[in-house]
Model the fold of this input.
Amino acid sequence: LSEYRLRCISCGKEFSKEEVEYTCPVCGDRKGTLEVIYDYEFLSKRIDRNLFRKYSSKGIWQFKDILPVRKDMVFPALEVGSTPVYFHKDIAKQFNLSGFSIKDDGRNPSASYKDRASAVAVVKAKEKNYDTIFCASTGNAASSLACFSAVSNLNCVIFVPATSPEAKLAQMQVYGANVIAIDGSYDMAFDISMKVGLTKGWYCRNSAINPYLLEGKKTGALELAVQYDWKPPDYVFVSVGDGTVYSSFCKGFYDLKQLGLIDKLPIVIGVQSEKISPIADAFEKGKPFEPIDVEGNSVADSIAVGKPRDVIKAVTYAKRFNGNFVKVTDEEILDAIAQLARTTGVFAEPAGAASFAGFKKYARLNSLEGKNVSIIVTGNGLKDLKSAMKKVGSVKIYPADEEVIREAFQ
Ligand SMILES: Cc1ncc(COP(=O)(O)O)c(C=O)c1O
Ligand SMILES: [Zn+2]
Done:
């Protein structure tokens, strides 16, 4: 099952999986990112809804028939995916929706959505007989890869901006990765990682460059469809950095539609920070799509990407599947962290809460009346306490005196 080919997002040229490793040799790294395409007709005769229900506790590997991995591989001994979806009637009512849910991907092994991609990356590295894997990351992909390399007995080299939140840096170190913290931006770390990693002959887990990672990420969409009993929501909101997670939702739903498992494609809305929004900008500018690189920063460090590597695919999919983008301020992101936590109990890091901020803004600017909406929380709040504390402040300290404390409640 699941023989697949690779197709360039820009020129459409198809390659066998043996022909190319990463990107289209004609269109290059930036514009020539590849899509994994399956023989849907062949697969649809062998796959039905029951197949996925049957294995529902196995996380992302329940979908292995539509993932580009060898089925005889040993999968990492960590449960990735099968993250919960929480339905909130009050929020639905507040925004005149027919339904509202949160998929909490902060519940993954290293506490972010990136585990879905890292799990596939380490399996591919093993399949291809690499002993070392590398990536550049704003922080989450790195902590995730460090985690999955540890359990897979692979050497792991990480290139991150030194400004990555402390908890993410701690994760990488605890998992035993070789951490190269760069005095510069994520975009700089990325370029250096490619120069060093590829010449060293290590396997590349940079998610736009490596076509298989989007496939791992698409399992979020597959799960959501199963959790919605094959009638997925009308809208899905997710935050956007390099653009791969955005595209992965489009691709996951597309695969399910091609296989006849869902009838209609949800509209995927990507959320960027107003302070650094090159993908939303490229989409706004329209066709022919070109990367628009910018400089900037955001409290949502995970999506502070000025030179997005998967921009062409993200905007092409947005156009193809009726998607769109929305920009939010850092203030709105910080407000969303506390609001989400206080109404739903889900504590998100800034990029995770950005999907909620984006949903609220989009609902204000466009009518979502009567629609069914889901937001994806892509990272756990414990990963970046400094940002969370910006709004709530530090705790007030009391003397160990019962009377003083009673008075405080007057
Ligand atoms: C928490 C979180 N949300 C969203 C994203 C955006 O994903 P992508 O870079 O694939 O657009 C990232 C990427 O680092 C992330 O860590
Ligand atoms: Zn090409």
DSSP finds 17 helices and 13 strands in the chain. The mean pLDDT is 96. The radius of gyration is 21 Å. Residues 8, 10-11, 13, 24, 26-27, 32 surround zinc ion (ligand 2) (CB under 6 Å).
